[in-house]
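Q: I have 149 residues here and want to know how they pack in 3D. Can you give me a structure?
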Amino acid sequence: MAATAYSVALLGGARLPAVPRSGLLPRRSSVCPLRVQAAPRLSLLRVKAASEDTSASGDELIEELKAKWDAIEDKPTVLLYGGGAIVALWLTSVVVGAINSVPLLPKILELVGLGYTGWFVYRYLLFKESRKELATDIESLKKKITGTE
């Protein structure tokens, strides 16, 4: 009722001809979303799971975690590192929230991130030689982390 009065006021007293509601929307039968029967190629994309079960049950997972925890010699240090990681995560969240509340700073940091992304793509991903260099750098970093170097 209010919408009709508003439209009459907008049009300067002229009323639009009444159109039945059913005439505005197409019939459901004429609008046809993608049907499985209409797309026979979808049956070619089926993927079957492997026959062997690779997932571990919950009990096996708990037993494995208990065994790993019992194998740790310096448990207080592990707890201290875990607590420190949680505090660092919380502190990072607080700092990011504070930076986000400054009006112009998030947009500037977005531009810095975009610029760095562009530089990284140009430096490491654009040319074949630099991609090889990046791959060797990643492999050497993996070896340093795992201690196999």
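Q: Anything worth noting?
A: The chain has a mean pLDDT of 78. The two ends are 78 Å apart (CA to CA).
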